[in-house]
């Protein structure tokens, strides 16, 4: 406790921030059972060595991750190139048969790799007369093709073209 000069009464100090706390002398801290020691030159070197080991380990881990990423991206590029070649082959086959009059076995062999046919099921239990069987065609060169998705994308692109043409017409 401390006294203000002149009034003779003891008052407790009020501390509003951590910077306002009084600094205790080292002897008072020793009485509380705390010990303080300065790091020796050897321990500072050991701490620096540990820090260097951690940084080295982090660097090696990052290098390994980057090497794996590069290999993965190379594989992706190869796959994309392969798909690009496959699409070109598919387009060439389509051009070959643009004026085809009849679908025969040779045309099917050139275009179709596999055909999957599902079991018959009833989509709506209230309508047992309605039966559905799904068919998935896996084409050579391009794999399975989702015609429904392609049709939706085509319709969206056509709408966008119409909007841009209407906008261009409104400007003139």
From TrEMBL:
This protein's name: DUF4368 domain-containing protein
Organism name: Fusicatenibacter saccharivorans
Domain DUF4368: 76-145
InterPro entries assigned to the protein according to its UniProt record, in alphabetical order: DUF4368 (IPR025378)
Pfam families named among the record's database cross-references: DUF4368
Region entry Disordered, spans: 1-49
Source species, domain of life: Bacteria
């Amino acid at each position: 406790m401390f006294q203000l000069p002149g009034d003779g009464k003891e008052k407790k100090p009020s501390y509003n921030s951590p910077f306002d706390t009084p600094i205790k002398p080292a002897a008072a801290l020793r009485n509380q059972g705390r010990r303080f020691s300065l790091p020796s030159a050897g321990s500072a070197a050991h701490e620096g060595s540990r820090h260097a080991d951690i940084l080295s380990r982090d660097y090696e881990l990052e290098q390994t991750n980057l090497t794996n990423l590069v290999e993965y991206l190379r594989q992706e590029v190869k796959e994309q190139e392969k798909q690009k070649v496959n699409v070109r082959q598919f387009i060439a086959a389509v051009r070959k048969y643009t004026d085809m009059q009849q679908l025969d076995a040779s045309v099917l062999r050139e275009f179709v790799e596999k055909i999957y046919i599902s079991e018959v099921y009833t989509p709506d239990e209230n309508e047992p007369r309605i039966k559905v069987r799904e068919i998935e065609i896996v084409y050579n060169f391009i794999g399975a093709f989702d015609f429904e998705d392609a049709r939706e994308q085509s319709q969206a692109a056509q709408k966008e073209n119409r909007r841009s043409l209407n906008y261009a017409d409104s400007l003139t």
